[in-house]
Amino acid sequence: MFASNVLSLPARPLPERPPSAARQVRWTDLFVAPPPKHRTNVVMIWSDWSSHSPRALSDLQRVSDELETRGQDVGTFAVAAPGMRKRDADSILRSHDIHLPELQLKLGRVGLTGALNQIPTELIFRDGILLEQRLGPLSYEDLRQWLKAIDQKP
Question: Model confidence over 9-67: pLDDT tens digits?
Fold first, then answer.
């Protein structure tokens, strides 16, 4: 069966989609460890297959050291992507002098982070709730600016 004179019909807009209910992601939805004592927490999910991860981790370590020196109450954490061997992760962290606390994702939760094929991925939590995420590597200055903008939010 073929339709004819389709283009002669009057144009009609498509029906509007109902707004999707965005699910609020909590720290406890993602990580095995309980939420840290800090009000604001930055988490970087990284992997050995990403050539950007070592530099991004180094920049996060630098920001973390700066925050600690200033006495700011911000936690910074690293998460090795699921499937990485512990000894490979440890080797990369050691060779780049990264000493960020490490977290473990709960089984099957990587999809909630957005880090399926964009590694590294950075997450910011406030009071245990995911506020924002950034896909791809962030530089030292990008991280500082992002944290500054988050700090200004109510």
Answer: 776 766 665 554 557 899 999 999 999 999 999 999 999 999 999 999 999 999 999 99
CA torsion through residues 131, 71, 77, 93, sign: positive
Torsion from C-alpha of 30, 127, 101, 147, nearest 10 degrees:
110
CATH code reported for the domain at 24-151 = 3.40.30.10
pTM for the predicted model, two decimal places: 0.82
CA distance 55 to 75: 19
Distant-in-sequence, close-in-space partners of 111: CB < 8 Å, separation ≥ 6: none
Q: What is the number of H-type helices and E-type strands within the chain?
A: 4, 5
Q: For residues 73 and 39, is the Cβ–Cβ distance under 8 A?
A: yes
